[in-house]
C-alpha cells in the first residue's frame, strides 16, 4: 500500500487520498512513497524534476522503474484544457511560446478588437511555435530511426517479440484505409512525431448594442460642479478619460439614432425624470436603432455589464429617446455595452462584418475553431457551417451563449454545434446574477450528456489583470468549473491586457492539475476499484454501437487500471465519445490527419498524437509503441486498451468493432 508523505517543494499542501484507496498518482510537487521506500517527485504538468531516497540512493530512472506504481506522463497531464485570449501584450512570438509552455492549449483571436494584420501576426506566431515543436520532435525521432537501422536482424526480432503477438482480424479483406471514410478523402499528411499542437480559435464580434461617442464630457462635468455633484479636481480627470460621471438619481437619455451615436447631442433641459438630482439630462447615442422598439417602460438597462444601471421611465417616439433614471451611479465611457435585463435585442447573430471576418479567419489564418458570439438559435449555426464548408474548411463551430434567448434554445444549439461556450459576462447582464451559476451548471450538464465540448469563460482570474495572484474566490471558481466537468476554461483580459499573462496561465494550470488529481482520487474511492463497478451504467443510454464500444472500453480500462485508452482515428468521433464518459484513464488519440489534432485540443482528458500510418495495424501499433516508450509516455509492462470502432473500419471489415487488451 502507498503511504502519503509530507509534500516537498513549493506547493506545501497534502494530496488527499481516502481510506484504502491511496493511489500512486502525483499532483503538482507532491511526493508519494512506495512501500519499498522509493520516492519520486514531479513538477509542473508532469515532468520529473527531482528524486529522493535516503535508503537506496538510486537515480531517478531506477526509482521510476522500480516503483510498482507507474508514473506515466499521460496520467500526469491536465484533463481540462486552457484557452488564452491574445492581445497586444502577448502577440509576439516570444510571449505566445511562453504561454504555450505555461499551459495554453488554444490561442483565441478576438475579432472584437485588433486589425486583420494583428490577427495574421498572431496566427503566424502560433504556427511558428507549432512548427518548432514538430521540428524538435522530428529531430529526436530521426536519431531514434538511425539507431534502429543499426540493429541486427536478430535484435529486431527480439524487439518485435517484446510486444507479444498482436492479431488483427480479416486484415487482408479490409477494403478501408485510414485515409478515407464515408466517401470523403482524408489527407494522410500528418507529420509523424509526438508533439502537442496549439489550436487557433477566432471569436466573432457578433451583433451588439453599444452607447455612442462622448464629446461633451467637459461641458457636462462643469455643470455638475455647479450643482455640487463633483469637485473641480475630478473634472480634469473625467475630461481626460472622455468620461461622464452619472450620479444615482440623475437622468440620462439614450437616443436611438445613427447621428447621435457618432456625435453626442447637447444635454436636454426640462426632460429630467421626477426627483432628478440634475435639472438637465445628458444625451448619449445608441448604435442600434431597433433598440427603441426592443425596450418597454420599466425595463432595466445595464451599461457595461451592470457598472451603470438604468431604469426606463418613458419613451419619446418623435426623437426616438429613451428617458432613463440612473439607479446605481457610475462612470459612462464611449461605446459601452448595453443590455436589457431579461430580454434579447432583435439583432442578427451574424453581421456582414462577421461574415468577412470568418472568411478571413478560414482562408488566411486556417483557424481550427470559430466561436460565434450571441448565438440565439440553431439556424445561425447551420448557416455558418454551410458557409465555412463552402470555403473548404472543417473548422469546429463553438456557440457562445450570451442571451436569454440562447439559453431557451440551448438543446437545439448544442445539437447543431461542435461545442458551447458559457460566456458569463453578457449572460450575467441579461440574467439576474443569482441565476448565472445555475445556468452554467445546466449548460455543462447538457453538453456533457450530448458529448459536446463546453468551455467556461469570463472573469476566471480577473484580479490577475492587475495583481500577480488571484483571489481565493477566483481559485475556487476555477476549481468548481473543473469539478463540473468543463472541457476547457478560458482566460480573457488576464492574458489579453493583463500585467501577468504568463503567471495567470500557469496559475490556472496549477489549479486545474490539483483539482484533476483530487477528482481522480475521489472517483477511485467511490468506485472502490470494483472490477464490475459502473458496468451497468455502461449499458445504459446507448444510441449506437460506437457509444457501446466507448463505454465498454472505459469499463475495461478502469477495471484493469490501464495506463491509457488508445484509439486510432481520422475524424475524431471516437475520442469525443470516450471523453464524454469522463473516465480517469487518459485517452490517447492517434491520427494521421493533420487538422484533427488541434480540433481535439479542447476535449477533456484527450491527448492527440500524430502517427506514421503503415499497411497493417500491427506495423502501425509497433511504430506507435516504440515512440511512446522512447518518450516515456508509457513504460514496458503498462496495460493499454485499444478500441477500434466507427462508421467504417481501419484495418478491419466494416461492421466489426473491437477492443484489444495489450501489454506494452
UniProtKB/TrEMBL annotation:
GO terms assigned for molecular function: ATP binding; kinase activity; magnesium ion binding; potassium ion binding; pyruvate kinase activity
All residue ranges annotated as the Pyruvate kinase C-terminal domain in the record: 547-647
Cofactor(s) recorded in Swiss-Prot or TrEMBL: K(+); Mg(2+)
Tree of life domain: Eukaryota
Start-end of Basic and acidic residues biased regions: 142-151
Organism phylogeny: Eukaryota, Rhodophyta, Bangiophyceae, Cyanidiales, Cyanidiaceae
Domain annotation Pyruvate kinase barrel: ranges: 78-133, 283-504
Annotated Low complexity bias: 168-181
Protein name, UniProt field: pyruvate kinase
Keyword ATP-binding in record: yes
Keywords per UniProt: ATP-binding, Glycolysis, Kinase, Magnesium, Metal-binding, Nucleotide-binding, Pyruvate, Transferase
Family: Belongs to the pyruvate kinase family.
This protein's record includes keyword Kinase: yes
Pathway stated in the Swiss-Prot or TrEMBL entry: Carbohydrate degradation; glycolysis; pyruvate from D-glyceraldehyde 3-phosphate: step 5/5
Amino acid at each position: 500500500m502507498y503511504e502519503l508523505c509530507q509534500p516537498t517543494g513549493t506547493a506545501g499542501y497534502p494530496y488527499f487520498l481516502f481510506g484504502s484507496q491511496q493511489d500512486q498518482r502525483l499532483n503538482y510537487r507532491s511526493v508519494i512513497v512506495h512501500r519499498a521506500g522509493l520516492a519520486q517527485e514531479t513538477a509542473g504538468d508532469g515532468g520529473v524534476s527531482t528524486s529522493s531516497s535516503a535508503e537506496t540512493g538510486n537515480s531517478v530512472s531506477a526509482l521510476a522503474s522500480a516503483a510498482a506504481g507507474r508514473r506515466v506522463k499521460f496520467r500526469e497531464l491536465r484533463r481540462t484544457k486552457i484557452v488564452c485570449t491574445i492581445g497586444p501584450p502577448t502577440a509576439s512570438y516570444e510571449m505566445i511560446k511562453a504561454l504555450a509552455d505555461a499551459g495554453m492549449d488554444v490561442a483565441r483571436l478576438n475579432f472584437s478588437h485588433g486589425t486583420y494584420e494583428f490577427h495574421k501576426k498572431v496566427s503566424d506566431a502560433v504556427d511558428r511555435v507549432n512548427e518548432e515543436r514538430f521540428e524538435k520532435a522530428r529531430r529526436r525521432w530521426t536519431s531514434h530511426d538511425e539507431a534502429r537501422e543499426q540493429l541486427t536482424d536478430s535484435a529486431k526480432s527480439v524487439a518485435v517479440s517484446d510486444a507479444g503477438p498482436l492479431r488483427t482480424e480479416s486484415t487482408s479483406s479490409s477494403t478501408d484505409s485510414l485515409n478515407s471514410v464515408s466517401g470523403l478523402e482524408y489527407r494522410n499528411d500528418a507529420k509523424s512525431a509526438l508533439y502537442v499542437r496549439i489550436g487557433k480559435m477566432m471569436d466573432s464580434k457578433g451583433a451588439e448594442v453599444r452607447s455612442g461617442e462622448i464629446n461633451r464630457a467637459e461641458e457636462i462635468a462643469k455643470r455638475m460642479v455647479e450643482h455640487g455633484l463633483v469637485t473641480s479636481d475630478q473634472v480634469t480627470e473625467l475630461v481626460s478619460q472622455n468620461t461622464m460621471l452619472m450620479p444615482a438619481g440623475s437622468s440620462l437619455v439614450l437616443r436611438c439614432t445613427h447621428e447621435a451615436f457618432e456625435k453626442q447631442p447637447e444635454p436636454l433641459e426640462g426632460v429630467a425624470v421626477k426627483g432628478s438630482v440634475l435639472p438637465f439630462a445628458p444625451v448619449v447615442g445608441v448604435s442600434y436603432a431597433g433598440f427603441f422598439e426592443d425596450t418597454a417602460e420599466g425595463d432595466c438597462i445595464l451599461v457595461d455589464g451592470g457598472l451603470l444601471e438604468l431604469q426606463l421611465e418613458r419613451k419619446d417616439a418623435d426623437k426616438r429617446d429613451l428617458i432613463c433614471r440612473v439607479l446605481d451611479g457610475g462612470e459612462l465611457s464611449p461605446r459601452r455595452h448595453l443590455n436589457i435585463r431579461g430580454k434579447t435585442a432583435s439583432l442578427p447573430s451574424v453581421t456582414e462584418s462577421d461574415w468577412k471576418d470568418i472568411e478571413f479567419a478560414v482562408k488566411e489564418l486556417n483557424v481550427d475553431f470559430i466561436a460565434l458570439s450571441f448565438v440565439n438559435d440553431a439556424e445561425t449555426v447551420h448557416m455558418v457551417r454551410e458557409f465555412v464548408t463552402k470555403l473548404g474548411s472543417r473548422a469546429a463551430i463553438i456557440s457562445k451563449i450570451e442571451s436569454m434567448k440562447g439559453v431557451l434554445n440551448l438543446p437545439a444549439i448544442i445539437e447543431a454545434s461542435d461545442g458551447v461556450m458559457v460566456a458569463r459576462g453578457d449572460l450575467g447582464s441579461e440574467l439576474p446574477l443569482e441565476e448565472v451559476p445555475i445556468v452554467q451548471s445546466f449548460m455543462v450538464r447538457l453538453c456533457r450528456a450530448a458529448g459536446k465540448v463546453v468551455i467556461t469563460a469570463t472573469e476566471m482570474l480577473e484580479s490577475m489583470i492587475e495583481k500577480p495572484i488571484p483571489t481565493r474566490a477566483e481559485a475556487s471558481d476555477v476549481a468548481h468549473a473543473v469539478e463540473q466537468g468543463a472541457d476547457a476554461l478560458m482566460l480573457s483580459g488576464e492574458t489579453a491586457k493583463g500585467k501577468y499573462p504568463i503567471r495567470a496561465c500557469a496559475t490556472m494550470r496549477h489549479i486545474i492539475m490539483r483539482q484533476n488529481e483530487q477528482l481522480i482520487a475521489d472517483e477511485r474511492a467511490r468506485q472502490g476499484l470494483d472490477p464490475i463497478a459502473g458496468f451497468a451504467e455502461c449499458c445504459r443510454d446507448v444510441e449506437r454501437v460506437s457509444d457501446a464500444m466507448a463505454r465498454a472500453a472505459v469499463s475495461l480500462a478502469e477495471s484493469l487500471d490501464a495506463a491509457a485508452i488508445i484509439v486510432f482515428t481520422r475524424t475524431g468521433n471516437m475520442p469525443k465519445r470516450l471523453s464524454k464518459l469522463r473516465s480517469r484513464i487518459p485517452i490517447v488519440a492517434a491520427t494521421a490527419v493533420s487538422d484533427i489534432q488541434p480540433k481535439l485540443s479542447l476535449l477533456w482528458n484527450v491527448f492527440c498524437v500524430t502517427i506514421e500510418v503503415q499497411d497493417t495495424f500491427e506495423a502501425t501499433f509497433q511504430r506507435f509503441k516504440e515512440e511512446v516508450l522512447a518518450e516515456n509516455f508509457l513504460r514496458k509492462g503498462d496495460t493499454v486498451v485499444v478500441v477500434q470502432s466507427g462508421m467504417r473500419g481501419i484495418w478491419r471489415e466494416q461492421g466489426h468493432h473491437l477492443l484489444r487488451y495489450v501489454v506494452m
